[in-house]
Amino acid sequence: MSRSPYQKLERRAFWRFGVEARGAIAEAGMFRPSFAIGPDTRVATAGSCFAQHVGRALRAAGVEVIDSEPAPAFVSDRVARDHGYRLFSARHGNIYTAAHLAQLAREAWKGFRPAEPVWTLGERFVDSQRPSVEPAGLASAEEVALHRARHLAQLRAAWGAADVFVFTFGLTEAFCHRDSGTVFPMAPGVIGGSYDPAVHGFVNFTVAETVAAFRAFMALARAANPAMRFLITVSPVPLAATASGDHVEVATVRSKSILRAACDEILRAEEGVDYFPSYEIITSPSSGGRFFAPNLRDVTEEGVATVMATLRASYGLGGQGVEASGAEERQVPGAGGADAAAEDLRCEEVLLGRFAGTATA
Amino acid sequence: MRRVLVYGNSHVAAWQAAWEGWTEGRPALEMAFFSLPERIFQRYRFRASGRFAARRSVTAEELDRVRAINAGQVECHPADADVAVCVGLSWAPERAMGFAALGDAPGMGPAVRDGARALFSAGFVEAAFAEACAETCAAWPLPPRMAGRTVVFGRPIYAETCLRSTHPLYAPWRDAAACPEAARAFLMRYADRLAVRAREAGVAFIAPPPDVAGAGALTRAGYLAAGGGGVNPDAPGARGDHSHMNAAYGRACIRHLLAHLAGAEVGDESATATAR
Predict the structure, then answer these.
(1) Separation between Cα atoms, residue A214 and residue A262, nearest integer Å
(2) Measured between CB atoms, which of A83, A146, A154 is closest to B127?
């Protein structure tokens, strides 16, 4: 046999062995970390709603997952999570885009002030940068500002103390304030605020923009915390809705492809970054689609367990499962079915589903 | 003449001592008492007849002890009274300290504006307390068919002396001790929420009177019963007794109850507001 670069490669490099004939995914070598995470590692988590699983899995495995804004222990998970507690290392809600993450870091460390910081919610007020954390809103705009200032202090503490920052990229689509470029985590009018096409614009970030935003975040984070390392991943959860004009499935593939490509660029350009293949595990042909719930969007408990088992195995961590919660998803008309894994999450993006009833043919 | 039955566990003793030495002019009511040691109290229940009587697990020796405490009586019948006041039930004020240890309460005033701690919203605090208070109320052993005539008077808050103990029971109070303003603010919200929940169940809940509290939410050491409040330096982790109060505390509670009864009918919204 003539010489070939494919000779002597590991079995995992070949589809036949790596996918077709593999046993447990967790032991298939899909992820080989370049740095360790152990019981003494302080981890901060953020990202889209799928990232909530990561924090819980790491905590269940004995890792010190930072919670800089804890709720009292007696408070049930349902009430706590409905108010943004016990989801991430600080109470910032879901961060779906790298642009929002970078903006939050600029606000925390550089004094950036978002445009339209307060949205109305009926006669109440919400923080436009995390509108889901106060389901009933606050009494005044001043109170929103007060809560935000306190939140940012806790956020700085969380990110400043983290050895590893885990971020799950969720979306490329976002709405922004046209004049200032301020990015919102949710479109105005979904949870508070009101959409005005003259004021608010739709953006669909490219690979370059996503990479630039995340690297800007990394630079700010490392300025405050030089030892910070990064574990990045892409949420396998498809878009609940798209404002791009494309079919939602086409928009999903675009979005996830961009995020996956951006992760690769970040990984190649920066030291101290690992990519964990949660997207690949869930969408792998080897799973035959069984990691998706009947609504073809939510990830099943088995899927989450497989991803988290792979994560733990990769770091040599113990623990069997994700912390049980018994939490129930908030009732969202038109959101479709959801299994227990999805019900534990707080995903305001799902709220977009309620607009399905107003869709045109 | 209004007949009031005060029943409960060992915390009734402070009330009884206060009433027996009452010098503030007798209000137009009769007050009777029935108390049980906590371990026996846990094994009493209300029968369908309304009698508060022992379960089978209460031994003959324990019944003898109950007789000795209660002038020969081993059970009581709150329905015979106009108002039944249950003293000493758990109301878990530690939950308020759980908040105070972690952050500030909404509406605390200037301290909130200048602080750097986490800040809890009224909506979150309300949701957390509402769920917890429903649990607490459901666990109270209450006399049947006495809706509107029953008062639950909360168990005394530990005395300030508990802060010297390292027993885990006092951990929430130790954790919140550095933030007395937050402790008071959260405790008031918690007691208010519990009163609302209790009212929905046809019961009036009255928290210990605020004037017995020290700088934080803990009860002033001067209200401790004789022998209480000690912490052995050789065994700082011992539980000790920082909970049983004296006749002066009982008097404060009775005054608090009388204000409540004078305000309106038991269970009435305005009455609870008066008592706060």
Answers:
(1) 9
(2) A83
Span A175-198, pLDDT tens digits: 999 999 999 999 999 999 999 999
Q: Could you tell me if B190 and B208 are in contact, meaning their C-beta atoms sit under 8 angstroms apart?
A: no
Whether residue B150 contacts residue B46, with contact meaning beta carbons closer than 8 Å, is answered with no
Which of B99, B119, B175 would best serve as a mutation to test chain A binding (most A beta carbons within 10 A)? B119
**How many other CB atoms are found less than 10 A from the CB of residue B121?**
22
Closest to A12 measured CA to CA, from A282, A280, A260: A280
Query: What pLDDT score was predicted for residue B109?
Result: 67
**What's the whole-number mean pLDDT along residues B103-127?**
83
Under DSSP, is residue B265 helix (H, G, I), strand (E, B) or coil?
coil
- CB distance B95–A79 less than 8 Å? no
- List Cα–Cα distances, B52 to B16, B151, B199, B214, in angstroms: 19, 16, 22, 35
Q: Answer whether A71 sits within 8 Å of B118, measured CB to CB.
A: no
Ordered by where they begin, the domains of chain A are 38-114+154-184+207-353 (3.40.50.1110)
Architecture of domain B2-92+137-162+188-275: 3-Layer(aba) Sandwich (3.40)
Least confident of A27-31, A263-267, A278-282, B155-159: A27-31
Question: Can you give the length of chain A in residues?
Answer: 361
- Over the stretch B133-189, which tens digit does the pLDDT of each residue have? 999 999 998 999 888 899 999 999 999 999 999 999 999 999 999 999 999 999 999
CA B268 to chain centre: 19
Q: Given pLDDT bands bounded at 50, 70 and 90, which one contains residue A339? A: low
Nearest to A195 by CA among A331, A358, A347: A358
Structure tokens at A148: 């935000």
Q: What is the mean pLDDT of residues A76-85?
A: 96
Residue A211 has pLDDT above 50, yes or no: yes
| Percent of all residues in chain A with a pLDDT value above 70, rounded to a whole number | 91
Closest alpha carbon within chain A to B176: A72
**Alpha-carbon Rg for chain A in angstroms:** 20
- From A313, A284, A254, A54, select the one nearest A168 (Cα to Cα): A54
* A145: Cβ contacts below 8 Å, ≥ 6 apart: A117, A118
Q: What's the rounded mean pLDDT across residues A54-81?
A: 95
What stretches of chain A show up as alpha helix (H) in DSSP?
A: 15, 51-60, 77-82, 98-110, 141-161, 207-224, 248-269, 278-283, 301-315, 340-343
ipTM for the assembly: 0.89
Task: Give every CB contact of residue A14 below 8 A, 6+ residues apart in sequence.
Answer: none
- Residues of A at the B interface (Cβ-Cβ below 8 Å)? 68-76, 79-80, 82-83, 85, 134-139, 143, 146-147, 150-151, 153-154
Every domain of chain B and the residues it spans: 2-92+137-162+188-275
Q: Please report residues of A whose CB lies closer than 8 A to that of B123.
A: 83, 134-138
What pLDDT does A109 receive?
98
Which residues of chain B make contact with A160, given a CB cutoff of 8 A? none
Token pair listed for A245: 């004009």
Q: How far is A112 from chain B (nearest CA, A)?
A: 19
Determine the Cα–Cα distance for residues A9 and A29; give it in Å rounded to an integer: 13
Question: At A338, is the pLDDT very low, low, confident or very high (cuts 50, 70, 90)?
Answer: very low
Q: Residue A26: which H helix or E strand, with range? A: none
